Known about the structure:
It comes from Streptomyces luteolifulvus. The chain is an alpha/beta fold. The chain has 14 helices and five strands.
Amino acid sequence: MTGNRENGVRGARAVxxxxxxxxxxxxSGSDGENLTGGNTDVFAHASVRLPVESAAAHIQEIRDRIxxxxxEYKANHLLREKHRAVLEWLLSPAGPIHGRAHVHLTEKxxxxxxxxxxxxxxxxxxxxxxxxxxxxxxxxxxWRAFLAAANQLLRVRNDGDPEAPVAGFFGEVDALRxxxxxxxxxxxxxxxxxxxxxxxxxxARIVDGxxxxxxxxxxxxxxxxxxxxxxAGGRPVRLLHDRQNLLTxxxxxxxxxxxxxxxxxxGGLRLVESRLDARVQLADFLAGIARKxxxxxxxxxxxxxxxGLLRPYVDPASxxxxxxxxxxxxxxxxxxxxxx
Length: 340
């Protein structure tokens, strides 16, 4: 990421607030805890470091270039083929956000497997092995069933039989063990089968009381990663984030403490209305654009030009398991085996 240039229009500087650098954030692709059956397969969290005046000028320039009568602009405006030149300009090295913006990507299916292995085995390296071998070994249908069962096991909300998530997941594990004995993944499946007591304890904790941090929502760790990125140079940051129901005061406190423990300099997080802050609007643009480009690449029909333009913005710490697409979106040597 070419993030060492000052942010804003050429020569402009992001104004520190009380010694803190303000970073504006937004997301795209949120489906709550439904990560395997939702509308999107990628979650993107974007952030920009720009002065308010510069961001407003860039928004106006986008409006002028698009020439749309829409009251509010979203990423889908820029993703239309007729606005391709505007999209390429926005992401290009000569564009307004290059070196001043950042995107943390989450491949949702991998995030589910990573979270499940962390809870059941405390072994995220094994999650990488199973994730990469799972579809070729089990076939599409059985792999999708395993992912859906893992999603149900971990999600907080369950309107049916409280024992169903555990039974469903371990039923899938047992079926895979019977169908694929003495294979590359059979040892991992055996370890999962032996971890049922941990799954029972996890579900019991959910039944006993409200869950502060839902393990399946990628927004919270993405915010922590964002704070870590922008404060890596030693300057503490304050994040301005589009309003989200998930970002309650208690969860903001968790984010702040988790960032501190990770060594990130997060000096605060403030929620704002996207339509009232041009910086957040730019982050919204970038999040939606990045999610679509990354999803297309994940599904094997990426646009080489757009993927290449997005790559400088992508967080090396993105939570991504698919090797082929990551080789194009990021640097293969930085692929993460954990979501932290």
